[in-house]
């Protein structure tokens, strides 16, 4: 008899939990169209930080390339640096481009 009382109590608590959960979500679903949209500030901040990190990384890489070239060839003009992460064709309109490995071996 007592175990039946425990089970009915547990089922009643579970039903109350489900009903209250439904009520909470129903209220929020009614309010949702009137809420202010989420802000993109955090996302924009991350994108700006990533962009400037790339810019600083490229500047440091190019400076290291120039210093290494000047150590090996003092007093000469530094040729353009070949792009590190771009394997496709690229052109230079002012200056002389470094020949790619494929075209220099032919």
> Termini distance?
93 Å
Strand content: under 5%
Radius of gyration, taken over Cα atoms and rounded to an integer in Å: 33 Å
Mean pLDDT: 81
Please tally the β strands and state the result: 0
Structural class by sheet pairing and helices: mainly alpha
Unreliable stretches covering 5 or more consecutive residues: 102-106
Oligomer: single chain
Which series of helices and strands comes N to C? HHH
Report the biggest beta sheet as strand number plus sense, adding barrel if it closes.
none
Domain count, please report it. Answer: 2
* Helical stretch tally: 3
Overall spatial form: rod-shaped
Helix share of residues?
55-70%
Keywords: Membrane, Transmembrane, Transmembrane helix
Protein name: Embryo defective 2752
InterPro entries: At4g29660-like
Transmembrane segments: 40-60
What features would you describe in this structure?
The protein has 106 residues and is mainly alpha-helical. It folds into 2 domains: 1-34; 37-93, no CATH class. 62% of the residues lie in helices and 0% in strands. It has 3 helices and no strands. It has helices at 2-31, 41-72, 101-104. It is rod-shaped. The N and C termini lie far apart (93 Å).
């Amino acid at each position: 008899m007592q175990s039946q009382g425990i089970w009915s109590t547990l089922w009643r608590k579970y039903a109350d939990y489900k009903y209250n959960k439904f009520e909470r979500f129903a209220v929020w679903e009614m309010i949702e169209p009137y809420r202010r949209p989420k802000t993109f500030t955090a996302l924009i901040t991350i994108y700006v930080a990533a962009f400037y990190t790339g810019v600083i990384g490229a500047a440091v890489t190019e400076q290291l390339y120039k210093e290494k070239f000047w150590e090996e060839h003092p007093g000469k003009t530094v040729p353009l640096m070949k792009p590190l992460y771009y394997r496709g064709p690229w052109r230079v309109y002012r200056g002389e481009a470094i020949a790619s490995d494929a075209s220099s071996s032919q």
